[in-house]
Amino acid sequence: MPGTLYIVATPIGNLKDITLRALEILKESDCILAEDTRVTKKLLMYYDIQIHVLSYHQHSQEQKRNEILRLLIEGKNLALVTDAGTPGISDPGNELIAFLLEKEPDIKIVPVPGPSALITALSVSGFRADKFVFLGFLPKKRRSKLFSWLSEGKYTFCFYESPKRILKTLEVLKEEFTDRRVFVARELTKIHESLYRGEISEVIEKLQKDPAKGEIVVVVE
Ligand code: SAM
Question: Which atom of ligand 1 is closest in space to residue 89's alpha carbon?
Answer without folding.
Answer: 1
